Amino acid sequence: MKPGFLRRIAQGGGLSAVKLFTGLVKIKVLASVLGVEGVGLLSLGLQFQATAVGLVSMSLAVGVINLGRPAWVDGDAAAAGQVLGTALALVGLNATVFLAALALFGQALGGGWLAAFAAQGISLWPLALAAVVVSFANVLWEGLSFLVDRFDVYVRSNMVAAVCDALLFGLGAWFFGLPGALAASLLGSLVLFAVYTLFSARATATRQILGRLSVQRARIRPLLSYSVLMLSTTALGLSCLFAARAHLTAVAGESANGYLQVVTALSAYLLPFVMTGVWGHLHPAAAASGDTTAARVELHRTLVASMRLGCAGCVAVVISAPLLVSLVYTRSFLDAQAFIPVYFGADLGYMFVSVLGAYLLAVGQKRAYFIGYAAYHGLLLAGVLLAAARWGAWAYVLAHALAAVGVTALALVHALRSGLLDGTTLRTVAGCALAALACCALDHLGTVLPLGTLAPQVSWLLGPVVILLVLAPLRPRWLPRWGRA
Known about the structure:
Helices cover 86% and strands 0% of the residues. It starts with a helix and ends with a helix.
């Protein structure tokens, strides 16, 4: 595996760890200061901001990377500047329309939930302005950092911004309550933009493209083709997940959704640890060259290394579940422990599909990407709607497993028919996954060794062995680098 990918995995894992720690600190402070109702209202406002970011930015950063990266690699800074400049013009137009619509029709468009803010004399304008700033930061600086393959700029900027954001939210809520927390969102977005600017301005490549910014009408349609895809998949996924969780809560109760949150939250910590590095490494490389032999070789290397890390992480979470649940939550959530081996076993398939999806999107195979994304969320929602009343939270866990297996099968068929993956890569990935799945199955069954009063679970002993085996091929290349350091 190329050292660059492992470095990006480490950088992405570091960013995920910083965001996790600062997020937990922020949640603890906000919960203590604002109380249940205040946190609920704040989360509603932040959901408004997240939705606004999606609408204003239109996920144009993906188009900037996919369309601008090949031009930059070919030495055409002017073409890359046209792509970025046109995307920024679209964001500016969207921001103008969004702010005007909020000023003229905000109360009518928002419906009854906006009244909760008005009743307390709280304005949503800080969140609206924050959404605009974040949209420009995402398209300009995030898109530009991936376009010129400066993943380190993306990581450092977001690390600093995450720490500042937690500090601003804590201070704002402590001294000014909910209005202070909402204002902190705007200040945090400005800090993000400023930090991005500071780190990006030091890179010669970014200055070259910024000096060639221009708007070209011919660039609009290709950019929008990626925006429509990302908006539709993101909206589809969020809608299906929300509908599934809402239905589960309605028919099985809030406690079922609470136990489910434990396993989905732990999963949300593991997947970005691997995928952030994949996006930082594979997406710029594949977008620059397209679906070439060299790009597929890099896909094979990235997929094998990602699945090794993912399988090791999956097993580590499964065998340490009792400690993790008690540490991150409380012992009253230990009933959720039974879901973890099943859910994380299915996550291995989801991770495999996610890596392939990153490559398909980078090389412009948008239809295959959309079909896989839609199939997973459609199967998940259908399973929950059909079985939640009978099986409760298990319906969601099993629907996730069914959807992951189904989409993995589709991905394998597509990969084999198109020659995307070779036999060696598939055998390596399958071997790692089967070892991890065996550990998950033994943990779920609760199989124990008859060693008197000790009686440890087999998975507790097998897990460390599996972790060492799947990570062993990565180790020889790491140790010399550390030793020389």
